[in-house]
Amino acid sequence: MDKLLVHGNGSLKGAINISGSKNASLPILAATLLSNEPSIVRRVPDVSDTNYMLQILRALGAEVERSSGTVRVEPADISPEAPYDLVRKMRASICVMGPLLARVGRAKISLPGGCVIGDRPVDLHLKAMQGLGARIEMEGGDIMLSAPEGLLGSEIDMRGKHGPTVLGTDNLMMAAVLAKGTTVIDSAASEPEVVDLADFLVKMGARIKGAGTRRIVIEGVEELKGVEHTIIPDRIEAGTFMVAGAMAGQGVTLRRVCRRHLEAATEKLEEAGHVVTFNETGTEVAISPGETPRGCDITTAPYPGFPTDMQAQFTAMFATTPGISVVEDTIFPQRFMHCSEMKRMGADIRVDGGRALVRGVQRLSAAPVMASDLRASAALVLAALKAAGTTEINRLYHIDRGYEHIDDKLLQLGGQVERVPA
Ligand code: EPU
Q1: 92 and 217 fall within a common domain
Q2: Which among 106, 213, 318, 339 has most CB atoms closer than 10 A?
Q3: What is the Å distance from ligand 1's center to 285 Cα?
Q4: Whole-number Å distance between alpha carbons of 310 and 382
Q5: Are 324 and 188 contained in the same domain?
């Protein structure tokens, strides 16, 4: 188990490449199961979540080869049972449910357990599968789904208490592409990762219209073929380094980004007084700290709103930004674990009912802190870049779930960080 030592108060300068999106890779890797032909997926980030997904695909019977960012999956014979010891490691394993049900007519998956960012039910995933005619039984912590006669297209509303569901929309889309007839997904998630999955499925031969809007229409087809695909850039990794550039940069450039996916983060960085400049094609962005940074308010919302996956990182930035900032997470109202750790570093933050009131302090001071989930850990790294002294971030495996070689990228930018065994 590694920890990260961050020697604070240095500055970041230079350019790095942003990796392929973790959250697009996971459902797309699961979608390779929908054909019996091999598929090749490029720019899959080397993070532990994609590794878990590849282990699950292997355990389901697929042959998987990985060579740096390129993954080849050959899913000729597939078993419908996803093993508990792998599934329990990653909540996103739930997205093999749709493909298994569509391809094999059965799926057995362990019910995902608790999650540190809040209660994360799967009721909408189950509602979606039921809507297509699947039978569902629960036994011994497992969800058993079956559709012996095949799935039947239908109109399904996926809106939950906190808005649309990303992986729920993905699961329904992946099941509906092989269902008989037409499926209409109302209140669909419109995140770029959902669009990337739809693009992958369309290449495979699926008929999907409306991905990226709140209403997706799918005409089921008989079978799908294997294809090649390149994953979109990781907008959350890009956003995280944009914040690093604003907090501790002296001119940071990020390559291989997609401007359209970064609008909400860009808008808030500019509102906070920082300078964000994209190149003409929107594939490269330069960030410099503003001369008079100021606090501002953030409320998370489904895309194109401000992403919940960037909430912790902006909270870290506001911790040392003059003025008062109010950060509200409407999607995961309990996702504020990073605040107590940042308070140990001297931040002035009050968390109350899904909202954090952040009063910017002049300086943070280093302390040993504990990463609690992926984005919370990223926030601690950002806070540590601005702290006086050496911050020790424990439980680094959380950050390795979703940031490809974060320590190497920080070193490339001149950051003073060291990964050491705990
Ligand atoms: N929800 C339900 N019922 C369901 C499913 C979701 O009530 O059956 C609720 C959730 O509890 C939450 C809201 O709906 O309040 C939205 O959750 P969503 O289903 O969209 O989350 P997800 O699809 O499980 C993905 C990302 C998360 C990201 C969320 C929201 C992946 C692998 N994960 O999760 O990413 O926070 O969408 O944008 O795509 C991360 O990368 O750090 C991460 C947690």
Answers
A1: yes
A2: 318
A3: 27
A4: 12
A5: no
